[in-house]
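JOB MANIFEST
job_type = single_chain_structure
chain_count = 1
residues = 450
[input]
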Amino acid sequence: MKKLLSLLCATALLGSTAPVMVGCGNDEYYEEGATEIVIYLQDFEEWENNHTKQMINEFNSIMDDGIQLVPRFFQDEAYPDALSSARENGKAPDIFVCSYGNLYGTVVSKNHAAPLNDLLDRAYFDDIVDSVKPMVTFGDNIYAYPQLTEPSAMLFYRKSVLSKAGVTEAPKSWADLLDVCSKVKPVLKKGQYTLGLPINSALGWATYGLQYNASGNLALNDEWTECLVDTDGYRELCGLWYDLYAGGYVPAGNVSARGYNDIIEGLCQDKLAMTFAGSWSMATIVNSYGHLKDDIGYIALPTLSGNTGETTASNGGWTYCISSTSKNKEKAARVLEYLFCEDAARTARYFEAASYSKIAVNKKVQQHLTENVKDGFADWLQTVNAVAATAIPEPTYAWDISLSVSSMLEYMALNTNANKAKIIEEQISFCKEKIERLMTVQGPNPVFPR
């Protein structure tokens, strides 16, 4: 039978050089003689870690399933090394978490994940929304069960600050955005900025939606055989970045300790009047700055044309894989069914705990959330769902290609004393040359078409 005890974590499973874990949960039910299913998890916000631990406790409280779920949490930077070390030592976890963008390049192409087609009931795959299913499917196989999606970028703003500047409507076009910035800047105090933007590596992925909005494509075509940055759309995007920094609207550095992931803190702490931020920011607002909730507005990012309903974000998020080397794949699959598939109300609890800042990927869960949305969140749920519905998947091409676009935009931000038209052409040309060199190493897309 299962009895309550403290489940101790041991890095010894990974060898003496393994990354240090940040914790493995609170008191948990332990079933003597049960098969241990080890699951590797990333250390996220406190509310999310607490929810995950609660779900694991509930799973382990089932007395007669013969499965003991053993969680191991790792900090962001330690997680990839932990997985690599475990695999090299022949002790890969039964279940591990992976982002959509890394699923093919770091997992599927290296045969680290078992196909789920014959491990889970077909009905559970049919329940995945159509926009997400291709993100976990390669060839004829589904290699991960998706947990969520979260739009990479939306526009959050302080209503009181815009009102003080005489702005009655949030910007819908890039031209509107620059106009609003020009009106808001004069009412700000020293140390306050008009707009927060992603910088450094976040710039590479948080602008996928804007890249697509401006050009109708990302840096490469789907076959990965042609670089597509030499377009009017990318020129417009470079120009936008130049103008925003030339106007002194954007801070030069991060306004939060974790950069873009927590950039919403800059808005809540009166450092920013507006900011680009991921949908997950709503959870931070509610949990840490609840007194400001009514003063914070949110819309999709402005589009180049000003038309609403266009793509302005990418859908990132997390999936759960079963290791190809697991000796207990069927029992690992049972864990995935419990967490994500069989009970819409149970799975929906995660999204409720997240203050609807993340998007459910199961049709039944989406329906449950819509029908049972908590007071005060109906408008937010409708808005974030609309952004997610038009968002594109994160590309799976080499990350260095995204960083090449990031470097191009950073150059525009740092060189606002130079001739705008001249450096746009120079940077488009340089970025294209750099990406084309990277393409010779990467080769064509091995899974196109999916």
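[summary]
The two ends are 46 Å apart (CA to CA).
The CA atoms of residues 314 and 391 lie 5 Å apart.
exit_status = 0
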